Amino acid sequence: MTNINDIARLAGVSVSTVSRVLNNYKYVAKNKRESVLKVIEEMNYTPNKHAIDLIRGETRTIGVILPYNNNPSFDQLLNGILAKALENDFLITVLPSKYSSEKEMEYLEKLKSKLFDGIIITSRANDWETIIPYSDYGSIVSCEYTEHTEIGCSYIDRYSSFLDAFQLLKNKGHQAAAFTTARLESNSTKQMLDAYHEIFGAVPPGYHISNCQCLEDGYEAAQQFLQLPERPTAIYANGDEVAGGMYLYAKSLQMTIPADLAIIGQENQPVGIGLGLTTVDHQLMKVGEQACSLVIQKSREKVKIPYRLVERASV
Amino acid sequence: MTNINDIARLAGVSVSTVSRVLNNYKYVAKNKRESVLKVIEEMNYTPNKHAIDLIRGETRTIGVILPYNNNPSFDQLLNGILAKALENDFLITVLPSKYSSEKEMEYLEKLKSKLFDGIIITSRANDWETIIPYSDYGSIVSCEYTEHTEIGCSYIDRYSSFLDAFQLLKNKGHQAAAFTTARLESNSTKQMLDAYHEIFGAVPPGYHISNCQCLEDGYEAAQQFLQLPERPTAIYANGDEVAGGMYLYAKSLQMTIPADLAIIGQENQPVGIGLGLTTVDHQLMKVGEQACSLVIQKSREKVKIPYRLVERASV
DNA sequence: CCTTGACTTGAAATGCATTTCATAAATTAG
DNA sequence: CTAATTTATGAAATGCATTTCAAGTCAAGG
User: Fold this and answer.
1) Residues with CB under 7 A from strand D
2) pLDDT band for position A72 (cuts 50, 70, 90)
3) Beta bridge partners of residue A118, listed in sequence order
4) Strand residues in B41-158 grouped as ranges (E)
5) DSSP codes joined into one string, chain A
6) Which of B155, B213, B259, B268 could staple B145 via S-S, CB 3.0–4.6 A?
């Protein structure tokens, strides 16, 4: 492989001059610049990125830890991140964790080893106490709120959004609502439960099903909800795909939406648009964009992204 | 920042010995190994990845060029790639191209600059002639078939799959079918048209709508198809989300599926499963896995991934 | 007692580009 | 016509870990 020394030798200049040409510094004599460029062209030379990164101590690459990548919510986040990264000429490396704390640590170690300039944590398996020391080695931005000042946040006030959604259902006359969540241990689930208590009080037995991710999960959840002795009149689904599954099951029973059953979804996804579902749009794409911006700016700000209640015909 | 020299000095050994400890070579005296590890621990030292990559000339990172990342098909590909990469301890950097040939070249230049060990091209904007020279700098694997021996391929015989799908429709008594495609210039569209001609002959006016990607596009396409004077009795949708949109539109007209209208989708996606759509499953996840394997093995094989016709109730 | 092989270790070369420092020539300002 | 800039260039230091080479110790085998 030809390197900068070869180019310098062949062009009859020093490596410094070649480097200057490479980096478009002024103060290189026109004829020298040209002969260097000519040799570069002839030798088909491209500088080695590792040598550059090594000396500059910067990579313009951001690692994105995300538990699942086949999940519409994380896809939206990733989308926003990619868009902003592209705009700023940063590269994104996807770091699938499956909520394994070991994997997560492995990725944080890579930040320490300088592979990334920063890391975005879309969802985490480890305690903040474990993660924080790594903020010495690059900016760490979370898509979930935390008070720790070492961590930048691009987050949603999920609690309020859940309050709003439940209030909407209550206003429409529902005394309770069934609901689904993803991971039982997640922060989001905790906020959901808090909001539920705030608006409706105790959760009736069978009204909460967790581990829902996709349309099929929603279909099954609806099946279970509608078999309960105290049939719910409204359901909050943690995602429009899940909501879509519920919709389809209800339709299969000839039920009318929202007269027989109100359904409210989340994230304003294609299926929801197609089926005309009312939805809580957390604007995850914007969350992703903001998270990426924070990493790029090495900022530790806490930025709250507004959510929107999109009212359509299912409530 | 503390480096390997500091560790060596503090542990009273040479850098070679530290390196040996770092890389778990045997033939390091037990007491020296221990004292090196102790110093590493104390100094909170992590080797610089760029220095390692520079000298090893390897990164265990693969770049994945994909035009859009918010597209279910590319998501499935990426999914397979990520799964296989994780398994083999490789990292994936996502390279969004939006079909810009400049961007694509930029990414190929990064391969040349040693940032990646290889690149997977899920879909491309440039000619093979432009791309091929870069195969000198790392393995390039395509998710589309090409005869060029420099390029590994993990591909689907789309032509045959389209033939099968159209034949299925014909067997059910349809004399023609409307269909949607994504990009008009794509290889896939070309194969689609060829297969159509083979089975049904000329495409009736208005029977082909391109630039369909999502559920809404399908909804609108169905609207257009069903307004035609010669109403199609069957539709092939280039994706289950698109098919889902068509299904919903047809249902909104109180049509019965498949009696009034047969719909066949593609990629076996959640919506399709939920709606019970017959679909051509190109097994894109497997395509992605195989593509990743080929890059890892630096293989230039051409591997055809079998597709499956999943018959459900919409045809 | 000598040879052979296993074990240990460090010096130095290697991979590659950037940047600082020093120096020199050519301009411009006063 | 000096003094001060601006322009131009190269040597050498820097960033950091791996690997080869050479050489040495020690124990086992003959």
Assistant:
1) A 12-17, 20, 26-30, 32, 51, 54-55, 57; B 1, 3-5, 15-16, 18-20, 22-23, 45-48, 51-52, 54-56
2) confident
3) A62, A139
4) 61-66, 91-96, 118-121, 139-142, 152-156
5) ---HHHHHHHHTS-HHHHHHHHTT-S-S-HHHHHHHHHHHHHHT----HHHHHHHHT---EEEEEES-SSSHHHHHHHHHHHHHHHHTT-EEEEEE-TT-HHHHHHHHHHHHTTS-SEEEESS-SS-HHHHGGGGGGSEEEESS----TTSEEEEE-HHHHHHHHHHHHHHTT-S--EEE-S-TTSHHHHHHHHHHHHHH-SPPTT-EE----SHHHHHHHHHHHTTSSS--SEEE-SSHHHHHHHHHHHHHTT--TTTT-EEEEES--HHHHHHT-EEEE--HHHHHHHHHHHHHTT---EEEEPPEEE--S--
6) B155
Specify the residue for token string 């194969």.
B191
Chain B nearest CA to A200, separation (Å) = 31
* Comparison of pLDDT for B116 and B1, the residue scoring more: B116
Assign residue B99 a region: left if phi > 0, alpha if psi is -120 to 50, beta otherwise? left
CB contacts < 8 Å between A and B, how many? 108
Q: Do A244 and B49 touch (CB under 8 A)?
A: no
Q: Write down the pLDDT at residue A71.
A: 85
Model pLDDT, residue B272: 86
Residue among A224, A151, A162, A165 nearest A187 (CA):
A162
Closest CA of chain B from A81, distance in Å = 11
Q: Is A204 exposed, middle or buried (0-12, 13-18, 19+ CB in 10 A)?
A: middle
The length of chain B is: 315
Question: For residues A270 and A239, is the Cβ–Cβ distance under 8 A?
Answer: no
**Strand B152-156 relative to strand A61-66, pairing:** unpaired
Per-residue model confidence as pLDDT tens digits over B34-51? 999 999 999 999 999 999
Q: Determine, for residues A69 and B54 on separate chains, whether the beta-carbon distance falls below 8 Å.
A: no
Angle CA A131–A135–A136, to nearest 5:
130
- How confident is the model over A134-173, as pLDDT tens digits? 999 999 999 999 999 999 999 999 999 999 999 999 999 9
Q: Where are the alpha helices (DSSP H) in B61-100?
A: 72-87
Chain C: positions less than 7 Å from a protein CB are 7-20
Average pLDDT over residues B248-277: 90
pTM: 0.93
Of B50, B76, B86, the CB nearest to A50: B50
